[in-house]
Amino acid sequence: MYPAPFNTWTTAYDQWAHDLTQNQERMFAWWRLILDPKPPVAAATPADVVYQENKLQLLRYRSQTLSNRPVPILMVPSIINKYYILDLKPGRSLVEYLLGRGFDVWIIDWGIPSDEDRLDTFDKYINGYLARSVQKVLDLTGQEQLSLLGYCIGGTFTAIYAALHDHQIRNLIQLAAPINFHDDGILSAWASKEAFPIDVVVDAFGNMPKWLMQTSFQWLRPTNDLAQAVNLWERLDDPKKTDDFLTLRSWLNDNIDFPGEAYRKYIRDCYQDNLLVQNRMQIDGDTVDLGRITANLLTVSATQDHICPPRSAAVLNDLVSSQDKQVLTLAGGHIGVVAGSGASKGLWVKLGDWLAQRSG
Amino acid sequence: MPEDPTKIWKQAFDIWEKQTADYWDKFLRSPQFLEQMGTSLEQSLQVKTVIDKAVSQTLTNLQLPNKRDQEQILHRLTELSAQVRQLSDRVDRLMADQG
After folding, report:
1. How many CA atoms, within 13 angstroms, populate the side-chain half-sphere of residue A239?
2. Which of B22, B71, B80, B88 to substitute to test the interface with A, most A CBs within 10 Å?
3. Does the pLDDT at position B1 exceed 70?
4. A147 near A170, Cβ under 8 Å?
5. What pLDDT, in 10s, does the model give residues A191-204?
6. For chain A, which domains are there?
7. Does the annotation count A305 as an active-site position?
């Protein structure tokens, strides 16, 4: 319409005007958020509490359709974060997705430990809480085996459990679950004997306080909070993206203390002495030999995972005796790979397909 | 064509953020930082432990239960409760097997 130089400037002007309008909308959205904040709706998938022990609750999700896959799935989340990362919100829920594909889905809600729970040992978590939850799922479903899905520390638990009780496990799914704790990750450096006097910490605090763990996670990437604020700004004109972002941030700040004696053993045996990957870890006197795992194994790692570097999780594949085993490395971070916007087309589909072939 | 200032700003921010994060990553895993972190943590927590022990001893001297006493009792109660539940489950299973 205009001569070439003017075309360039009019295009630029249109772009600037668009940016100005967009930033204006974001500013209004920002003020609406501050003046009328709506709490995020998380863990929306209906479930029933079928078993309780101390603070632990075992939940069975209600399905709208009849489950056509007899092998139930028991999800074991990390004990320092709330379980609903796996059921974040409608449309961003791995639980909801698997229910939709006809699976019978259960989950452990570890609960919030009180001061006296500092005496709960790591062994009790494996051979006590987790073992009884597994048995309860098998008893109530009438099945002899189940699929065990562990995420993060929950995945370390499930790997140990599978090594000790392999006969109960048909399929083992490890999501961003550290097995080799001596890696390039910064957490490995911080938890070393030189940097982290574990006995002094546990004796002083009892339960490892969530604020201290949260601080360490923030220091994994100190600029992250600022980067997230910029990310939020870019999403403010899209209500759905804003809600997704705020729901995830809400979960990130909803942490849980780590029971003291369990934490002592976890840090000493895993991070400092790295006994698990060497098959030298002991639980109630039994050696945890990962080579005893024969269940079908799917190990998932994330390329930008600062908490569980990919190799730290993938090493399990080399240690088990399973005939059917696979490593899946996906783009994303520790949380994004499971609950990010791309998870529904990435991990969930692959996980659903893998389980579908092995849950008949 | 004149660049979109928003895009320029975002690119500059992303570069700054990555470089700053890389710098901190290197610093926070350096031997000097790790040693300092361990020492600071140990010393500050030892002070806390001394204070906690003094408070605990004072309560004991006053014939009052301290925090650790209460935790032990509550923990024991929880264990007993779990044992009762397990026994109950075993009885249920035995009765179910007997038909």
Report:
1. 5
2. B71
3. no
4. yes
5. 999 899 999 999 99
6. 20-356 (3.40.50.1820)
7. yes
